[in-house]
UniProtKB/TrEMBL annotation:
<feature type="transmembrane region" description="Helical">
    <location>
        <begin position="94"/>
        <end position="113"/>
    </location>
</feature>
<feature type="transmembrane region" description="Helical">
    <location>
        <begin position="9"/>
        <end position="33"/>
    </location>
</feature>
<keyword id="KW-0472">Membrane</keyword>
<keyword id="KW-1133">Transmembrane helix</keyword>
<keyword id="KW-0812">Transmembrane</keyword>
<protein>
    <submittedName>
        <fullName>DUF2975 domain-containing protein</fullName>
    </submittedName>
</protein>
<feature type="transmembrane region" description="Helical">
    <location>
        <begin position="45"/>
        <end position="65"/>
    </location>
</feature>
<dbReference type="InterPro" id="IPR021354">
    <property type="entry name" value="DUF2975"/>
</dbReference>
<dbReference type="Pfam" id="PF11188">
    <property type="entry name" value="DUF2975"/>
</dbReference>
<feature type="transmembrane region" description="Helical">
    <location>
        <begin position="119"/>
        <end position="141"/>
    </location>
</feature>
Length: 159
């Protein structure tokens, strides 16, 4: 019974994270882009490409959040050792890798435009490093879970 409370807390955290990113995308990013375009008119032409790039990264982000909710529901329904859980982890891994690749291309693009300010580079590098960590961690969990499923299946066959 304790696991249900923990999964509900995690689901709430996932929903909260989704809402925060949505609000930042809808309210803060356009305002920030407008302010930067007004402050640095020589980079105003980058306003929409950067916004589009950031909005494109939200697609795999929200797909990964959806997969995390699916995984939490599997855990809640006492079915964590299943192929659906392995598939959810695989999709989360690919989403993290996709976000990392998008940030690499974005930083290369900004570098070619001489607009890669050191603070933007550091922020992009932190996000890229986080994506790598999430991708590797979910890959390890995926392999572990796949191995546990194989052991479970073998045990069920021997009994």
């Amino acid at each position: 019974m304790k696991i249900i409370g923990k999964t509900k807390f995690l689901m709430g955290t996932v929903f909260g994270l989704g809402i925060i990113v949505f609000l930042l995308s809808v309210i803060a990013l356009p305002m920030l882009a407008k302010e930067v375009a007004l402050t640095y008119p020589e980079y105003a032409y980058l306003k929409y490409p950067v916004l589009i790039g950031l909005y494109l990264t939200t697609i795999p982000f929200y797909f990964a959040l959806y997969q995390a909710i699916k995984l939490l529901k599997l855990i809640e329904n006492n079915n964590p050792f299943s192929e659906q859980a392995v598939n959810a982890l695989r999709k989360i891994k690919y989403c993290a890798a996709a976000i990392g690749v998008m940030y690499i291309f974005g930083m290369i693009f900004l570098g070619t435009q001489n607009a890669l300010h050191p603070s933007i580079f550091i922020l992009g590098f932190v996000i890229l490093f986080s994506c790598i960590v999430i991708s590797v961690f979910t890959a390890v969990l995926q392999e572990l879970l796949d191995h546990a499923i194989k052991i479970k299946t073998e045990n069920e066959l021997t009994i």
